[in-house]
Structures are given as structure tokens and as C-alpha cells.
Specification:
rod-shaped; five-stranded mixed beta sheet; alpha/beta; Alpha-Beta Plaits; about 15% strand; 5 strands
Length: about 160
């Protein structure tokens, strides 16, 4: 009889251990499942296999807001840089630096492309009324701006055009 009792106790403890092991594996499986779903979704989203609406690329309406320029006075007219800066900013272009060019004998206003994206220079030239033939490229990675605009003696032509 004692043997029978011991046998029943062993069977019941084995049953409890077995149930505990099953419960443990179920809990671990649920936890892994809960963490795996978001990670999988994120991976598939990053790989471009699925697309999520929450990260639609928002493009600014005025692309010129992203253009950074410096304005240099090459005509020698006092205040020309400030007036031209006001015109440029009214077009939504960010003027990050102003100053004087190396000389004051520049006849025609011109644009220097500093980053190798002449399309950006074309956009600015169009918005200001500068002839596209007055764009030159001088790529320089030391500059932290897109364009340099050198104001020439024809400055008054641009200030009249852009007053409208």
C-alpha cells in the first residue's frame, strides 16, 4: 500500500512538473511571438517589401527653401548686398552669408554652383531673372552652401524686376 502511495505521489509530481514545463513553454512562446511581430514588420518596412503610411515623404511646397546661398557684392554699390539679400529671401531662399567679392568691377551678376548641382543654380537664376549663361560651376567641398551669387553693376535691373 505504501508503494502504491509513493507511486501515486511520484505520478502526481511528474504530472505537476509536466504541466509547469508546458506552461513555461507556452509563456515563452507568447512572449517571443509578441516581440517577433513588430520586429518582422519593421524589417519588412525597412527593406521596402511592405510600405507604411506613417512615413510618407513630405515634400515642401517651395523646394527653394532648401537652397543655401551666400551673396557677395561685386559692384561696389553700398547696400547692394542687403537689398539683393532681401530679394532672395522673399523668394524663399536661405541666405547664410553676405560679404564683398574680391573686386568691385563685376559688370554682370553671376551665380557660382558650389555643390555640382547646376539644376539648383538654374532654379535660382529663373526665380531672380538672371541669365542662365551667367552660371558657372566651381565645386568646393569646403563650402557648406549650395550657391554663391556675385552681384554685378547690373544690380538695379534685378531689383526692379523683383519688386513686383
Amino acid at each position: 500500500m505504501q508503494e502504491n502511495n509513493l507511486s501515486n505521489k511520484n505520478n502526481s509530481s511528474d504530472t505537476i512538473l509536466s504541466k509547469n514545463k508546458n506552461l513555461f513553454f507556452i509563456i515563452v512562446t507568447v512572449i517571443l511571438f509578441v516581440f517577433t511581430i513588430p520586429l518582422s514588420y519593421s524589417l519588412l518596412d525597412k527593406l521596402g517589401i511592405i510600405s507604411s503610411d506613417h512615413k510618407k515623404e513630405i515634400k515642401p511646397k517651395n523646394v527653394q527653401q532648401l537652397i543655401q546661398v551666400e551673396v557677395l557684392n561685386g559692384c561696389g554699390i553700398a547696400g547692394a548686398g542687403d537689398r539683393f539679400t532681401d530679394i532672395i529671401r522673399s523668394k524663399g531662399i536661405d541666405v547664410v552669408k553676405t560679404g564683398n567679392y574680391m573686386s568691385f568691377d563685376i559688370d554682370k551678376t553671376f551665380i557660382i554652383d558650389r555643390i555640382g548641382k547646376v539644376e539648383t543654380a538654374y532654379k535660382v537664376a529663373d526665380s531672380l531673372g538672371i541669365d542662365k549663361r551667367n552660371i558657372i560651376s566651381q565645386t568646393n567641398k569646403q563650402y557648406f552652401l549650395d550657391l554663391t551669387i556675385v552681384i554685378g553693376k547690373d544690380f538695379n535691373n534685378y531689383s526692379k524686376k523683383n519688386r513686383r
